[in-house]
Each structure stands twice: as structure tokens, then as C-alpha cells.
Write a structure and sequence with these properties.
With about 425 residues, the chain is of the alpha+beta class. It folds into two domains: about 240 residues, BirA Bifunctional Protein, domain 2; about 90 residues, Rossmann fold (3-Layer(aba) Sandwich), CATH 3.40.50. It contains 16 helices and 16 strands. The strands form three sheets. An eight-stranded mixed beta sheet has the order 1-5-6-11-10-9-7-8. The chain has a five-stranded mixed beta sheet with strand order 13-12-14-15-16, sandwiched between helices. Strands 2-4-3 form a three-stranded antiparallel beta sheet. A hairpin with a 5-residue loop joins strand 3 and strand 4. It starts with about 25 loop residues before the first helix and ends with a helix. The chain binds one RNA strand of 77 nucleotides through helix 3, strand 6, strand 10, strand 11 and helix 12.
RNA sequence: GCGAUUGUAGCUCAGUAGGUUAGAGUGCCAGGUUGUGGCCCUGGAGGUCGUGGGUUCGAGCCCCAUCAUUCGCCCCA
């Protein structure tokens, strides 16, 4: 092992596939990222990029002091100017900050954004959870229309479909306003309190810390005790209830099946109304693909004039892992050369011609490579195979004398001579 | 933050109850075979056994610490 290793629970994504960790291959990442961009573009979203760190206060204020993220998971440090800075643990608050700073909310009353960026959370790693993870997401500001909630949901589901995850289930819920949520919490506490001692240790802990999470248990005993518990939707204010009903109507008319999941809650303080999660089928414990929700109070919390918002986010690493688990084939490595030059015979005669051929082909926009270790035909050909070249360009003293190059199809092993002057056109036609 | 797990060659791993010079497969390099490969044969290089202490006549193996890995919990993406 080398002296230095990647920082704990962070991954290197490599230029070649590995048998053990197939998902840590840049070609696969690029494919998924470009699929995401393509979907966002189709839906009319524009890209925003923000710095990798922000003032710490932006996150403590927006996410909530009591959340795990703020209380124990932030990568925080003091910079040389004495400011407390934090590597961003999530993408929404920085996007809001940037929009406020550049007045985008005023100039673009309805603002549809997408982003792709690294998030950092200082926690113990495990499968699908890393200290640095890439998040793909969208945010829409300026509209409370439930139709935009439906659009964000459809965008997310369409993205998963385009990369081959077709078996998905949409879970929706409404968490209402902070006030209605508070009323519900009291009702839930009142309901569970009489039998509290019968709950699992974990359930009892959640009762204290975050009662909503009691609903999210897998413990069969707890589930039984929760039968007949009050539902959050019954505590919604009229506006939130209507909003939730409208969302369902839009989803239905768009032909998007959904299930209402009363146990679905989101972690951060700033969420309001719509909460949704997309769940993959047949994935077991790692089934949540991504989720999002509405945050009508966040912009005001960050110091702007009250502006509603809704967003969706997904973790790239988990997405890649899911693709692996489902055995979904992605298109071939886009970094493969089209052709690979192989030389035979006297190096001093042949190599200069090969170098010239390479530069001509590259200038014409063809991806082509050669072996720089001056070895036998077989070894050069093997390098070509390892790099995934589709064609071999065989160049020896004989070919040079005739002014041709051998064009060998690696799939069929058929080889024919092509005049040097015509190789570029031939390859362009084959590309 | 809590609980486990693993660390020996580039890669996958073996290494018996502590006992000479630490092994295999694969990959790599060279030759057999200066111009058409992947096979085969022969040879070769490659290790501070994660690191630092300790126990012992003697440690890859036992003990402590430390770093790193992987996995679970909490929570999340």
C-alpha cells in the first residue's frame, strides 16, 4: 500500500473499470451525469455552480441547529481570516444564497435551476455513505403551484428511467407548515405516550429526539403499536391540504402512479408541504433512490423576501451503486480510441511515419493512440485491446514502401490495405 | 458519536501450535520467436508482512497503541 491514502470514507473514481468496484469508473459517472443534464435541459432548467464552501452560519441557520448534520457532521474550519467556513453538506442553501446575492429572484420570477456538486458530511462511512458525495439536484423558486411540484417529480423519475432504472415507486406526503407539524407532533406524542415502555429502545429514543422518526421504524412491535396513529395529513391547514390534493390531481392526470406514505418525513427544518421520495423496487435496504420537497420558508430564513421553493436531490454514489446492484449495462467507455497504430520492422524507419500518421488523424478529430514501449506486434495489439480500440492501423516497412497502412478490424480480424492518403476518410466513415 | 471487521508481491489470497532464506495463482519484464498478438515453454524482477512499541532465545502469527479498510447502528444522499 502506498504511503498516502484518500481521505477517510472518500473515493477515487478511476479511468479504468475495476472488477471489485465497477461503479468507481469515470466513464460510468460521465454517462449518468450527462443523462441528468439532458433531462434537465428538456425540462427547461439552467445550471448553477456555487463554491464548495460557505460561511458556516448559512448552514446552521437554514438546516437547523438540532439536526445531526449541523450538530455533528459538518466539515468546519477557521480560515486564515478568522472566519468559520464549512464545506457544503447540501446544495439547496448555497443555491439560495447565490440567487439572493445576484438578485436572480427579482430578475427571474420563476427560476428553474439544476446543479451538480460535491457535498461533505463528517460521519462514519458505510456502503453508500461517504464523507464526500456528489449530489445531482434541481431547485425551483418563485411558485407555489402544485404543478411545479409535479414537474420536479416527473423530472426525477424520467432521469432514473433514462439511465435504465425503470422499476420505481413514488412516495408522497405533505408535512404542512411548521405550525401544523408542531400540532401533529403533540398528537403523535399523546398517542404513543401511554404505551411508550413497550416500544423498542430505539423507538423510545426517537420519541424524545424526533417523534416523526418513530413512524419510520422497521421494528414489527413498534409498527403494531403505531397502528391507528394519527396521520400528518389530518393536521394540515386548509391551504396545505388543497395543495396536496392538487399535486395528486396533477400526478394522476400526467399518468404518474404514486402512493401516499404517511411515514415519509424529511430531515431538514426548512421543509414545508410536499415531501417525496423515489424508491427502487427489489433493492432491499438501499432502496431510496432520491427525494425532495418544498421549502417555502427557506429563502426568507436566508434573508430574502419570502419566496417559495421546491427541490429534488440524489446522491451519485448511491445511484451508481444501484445501477451495479441492478446489473444495468451502461454504454461503452467513451474514452476508447477508435484506432491504434501498431508498428513493425525497423523503428528508425517506421516510428516517424507512425508519429506523423497519429498527428494527422488527431487533427482530423479521430481518437487514436499507439504503444510507446517499442514492443512486439502481439504486445502492441494487446495494449490496443486493453484500451478498447476498434481498429488497428498496421504500419511496417512494407506498407510504407507501398504508401499504405493495414486497417485491421479488431472484431472480425479482417485486414486490408488502405492508401495512407485515404486513412483519415476511411476512419471518419467508420467512426 | 457507538459497535464490529480486515491490513502479507501491482491484483486475488495462503502461511499450520510462535521456529532457518515469507509462498501460490495472476499480472509485469526478458528470451524461445527482428513483420501479424492473445496459447505454450524457460528464466527474471518485485515484500520495511500497514506503522510504532512490547513479550520471547526467536514474532507475519501473541499483547498494547496508532493509522488505514470494510460493514452495521444513529442519521442521511
Amino acid at each position: 500500500m502506498s504511503k498516502y491514502t484518500a481521505p477517510p470514507y472518500m473515493n477515487d473514481v478511476l479511468p479504468f473499470p475495476s472488477k471489485k468496484e465497477a461503479w468507481l469508473h469515470t466513464a460510468r459517472w460521465r454517462y449518468v451525469e450527462s443523462a441528468f443534464r439532458a433531462v434537465c435541459r428538456r425540462y427547461g432548467y439552467r445550471e448553477i455552480r456555487t463554491p464548495i464552501l460557505e460561511q458556516t452560519e448559512l448552514f446552521t441557520r437554514s438546516i437547523g441547529e438540532a439536526t445531526d448534520i449541523v450538530s455533528k457532521e459538518m466539515f468546519t474550519f477557521t480560515d486564515r481570516g478568522g472566519r468559520s467556513m464549512t464545506l457544503k453538506p447540501e446544495g439547496t442553501a448555497p443555491a439560495v444564497r447565490a440567487c439572493l446575492e445576484h438578485n436572480l429572484f427579482n430578475e427571474h420570477p420563476v427560476l428553474k435551476l439544476y446543479y451538480q456538486g460535491q457535498n461533505f458530511r463528517y460521519e462514519r462511512g458505510q456502503k453508500g455513505r461517504y464523507r464526500q458525495h456528489q449530489q445531482l439536484g434541481v431547485e425551483v423558486f418563485g411558485s407555489t403551484d402544485a404543478a411545479i411540484d409535479a414537474e420536479v417529480i416527473q423530472l426525477a423519475m424520467e432521469f432514473y428511467r433514462t439511465i435504465g432504472i425503470t422499476e420505481q415507486e413514488l412516495h408522497i406526503n405533505s408535512v404542512g407548515t411548521p405550525e401544523s407539524r408542531k400540532a401533529y407532533l403533540e398528537a403523535l406524542r399523546d398517542f404513543t405516550r401511554p404505551n411508550l415502555e413497550q416500544f423498542s429502545q430505539e423507538g423510545q429514543m426517537r420519541f424524545e429526539v424526533n417523534p416523526l422518526r418513530m413512524l419510520d421504524t422497521k421494528d414489527s412491535g413498534d409498527l403494531k403499536l403505531l397502528e391507528g396513529a394519527p396521520n400528518l395529513v389530518d393536521f394540515l391547514d386548509d391551504d396545505s391540504r388543497e395543495h396536496f390534493e392538487l399535486l395528486q390531481a396533477y400526478l394522476t392526470s400526467a399518468g404518474v402512479p404514486y402512493v401516499i406514505d404517511h411515514r415519509l418525513v424529511r430531515g431538514f427544518d426548512y421543509y414545508t408541504r410536499t415531501a417525496f421520495e423515489i424508491v427502487g423496487k427489489n433493492l432491499g435496504a438501499q432502496s431510496a433512490l432520491g427525494g425532495g420537497g418544498r421549502y417555502d420558508g427557506l429563502v426568507a430564513e436566508c434573508g430574502g423576501t419570502s419566496t417559495p421553493g421546491i427541490g429534488f436531490g440524489l446522491g451519485m454514489e448511491r445511484c451508481m451503486l444501484v445501477l451495479d446492484t441492478l446489473g444495468i449495462e451502461l454504454p461503452a467507455d467513451d474514452e476508447r480510441p477508435l484506432a491504434f497504430v501498431v508498428t513493425l520492422g525497423d523503428e528508425k524507419t517506421v516510428r516517424p511515419v507512425a508519429v506523423k500518421l497519429l498527428s494527422e488523424l488527431r487533427a482530423a478529430g479521430i481518437a487514436v493512440d499507439m504503444d510507446y514501449r517499442y514492443k512486439k506486434f502481439g504486445q502492441q495489439a494487446r495494449t490496443a485491446d486493453e484500451l478498447g480500440a476498434r481498429y488497428l492501423l498496421v504500419l511496417g516497412e512494407g506498407e510504407i514502401a507501398e504508401g499504405v497502412v493495414g486497417l485491421r478490424d479488431q472484431a472480425t480480424k479482417e485486414q486490408r490495405n488502405v492508401p495512407l492518403a485515404e486513412v483519415t476518410q476511411e476512419l471518419l466513415a467508420l467512426a
